[in-house]
Amino acid sequence: MSKKTVQIVGSGPETAGDHSLDVPVWSFPGPLSDGYLKRIDLLLEIHDKTYFEQTNAPPPGSDIEPWDWLYHRIQDLRQRDRDFEVLLAEETLFEELGWPPQRGIAPFPLQDLMDFYTLPTRGPEETRCRFFTSSPAYLMALAGYRGFGRVELYGIQGSSSAEFINQREGLGFWAGQLLGRGIDVWVPRTCLLFGTSSNRIYGFGENAMAMGRVELQGYVEQYNQAIVEVKSKMDELHGRYEELILLGSSHPSAPRLPALQEAYDSARELLELYTGAALFGKFLLRRIDGISNEERLPILPSEDNQF
Predict the structure, then answer these.
(1) 28, 108, 127, 191: which could form a disulfide with 135 (CB 3.0–4.6 Å)?
(2) Per-residue DSSP letters for 51-106?
(3) 86 close to 104: Cβ distance less than 8 angstroms
(4) Could you give the CA distance from residue 291 to residue 48 in angstroms, rounded to a whole number?
């Protein structure tokens, strides 16, 4: 007898588009923007209003506020998948955002999940699980809570940038929680979420701890791609900032200037992190290849990092 199955779809281009039309799909706004979803049955927006305004603001001069923009996207999707469910971070957002009442929109049941997933301790009280590091982690926990017997992950590599690598531990934790409850967790063959490109494991085989050249090269390429992406994000943020400056301090969007500066500064810090990781990876590749390079490693260019 086949198990009740749900597909959780992320933005990883390697496998995001491989999900089936025959099984429910749960996702979040990122994959919607990337056009990967063939269907949608549940949409999760776990961020609060402040975060969404900082990262998803429409172009300066637009009359559509960020949350209204998301609302219009949801309405467009309902033309195709009429009955899909929308879960938001806080129920109080509904009145604040002024959304008209409609079916299928509800607060994410965070407290219910924490009550459902508990860890035994030596004391009289249980410890509630709070290890939620990403939107897919919330959806994995929700799948177990709602009684699914199989969870399939598409487009969720946990390795495309430092941000996603940091989220990877939480995905592994919730996979373990589901497996421990008898729930199947499936990933595509090419997914590195629970493995490495070299298939090495700790402690078995000659030089098992060492990272292979192919795997190291893959990490360098991932960081190089992350550098391209964060530079593009910085250019976008800079463009928004300059447009708001031209519109003047009296424009309704002017209060977003500090948030844009903060987002730009955060992106700059990521750029420095990614660049350092890529340079060090290239240095290790030279060592693996036995190349003696007397030249100094290139350093980050000195440039004005402020708007």
Answers:
(1) 28
(2) HHHHHSPPPTT-SS-HHHHHHHHHHHHHTTSTT-EEEES-TTHHHHHTPPP-TTEE
(3) yes
(4) 50
pTM attached to this predicted model:
0.65
Across the chain, how many H-helices and E-strands are there? 9, 9
Asked whether 152 and 186 are in contact (CB, 8 A), the reply is: yes
Contact indicator for 77, 59 with CB cutoff of 8 Å: no
Q: What are the 10-residue block averages of pLDDT along the chain, 307 residues in total? A: 89 83 89 78 83 56 61 74 80 67 80 84 66 92 96 80 66 90 88 64 52 74 84 86 80 74 82 82 75 41 42
Q: Which of 133, 125, 155 is nearest to 13 (CA)?
A: 155
Residue 69 to residues 10, 59, 99, 181, 292, Cα–Cα distance (Å)? 21, 11, 11, 39, 54
C-alpha dihedral (194, 198, 199, 200), degrees to nearest 10:
-100
Distance CA(245)–CA(255), nearest Å, equals 11
Give burial (CB, 10 Å; 0-12/13-18/19+) of 140: buried
pLDDT digits (tens, 9 = 90+) for 167-216: 788 888 899 999 989 999 998 877 777 765 555 555 555 454 455 677 77
Check if the beta carbon of residue 27 is closer than 8 Å to that of residue 12.
no
Check if the beta carbon of residue 109 is closer than 8 Å to that of residue 91: no
CA distance 47 to 194: 26
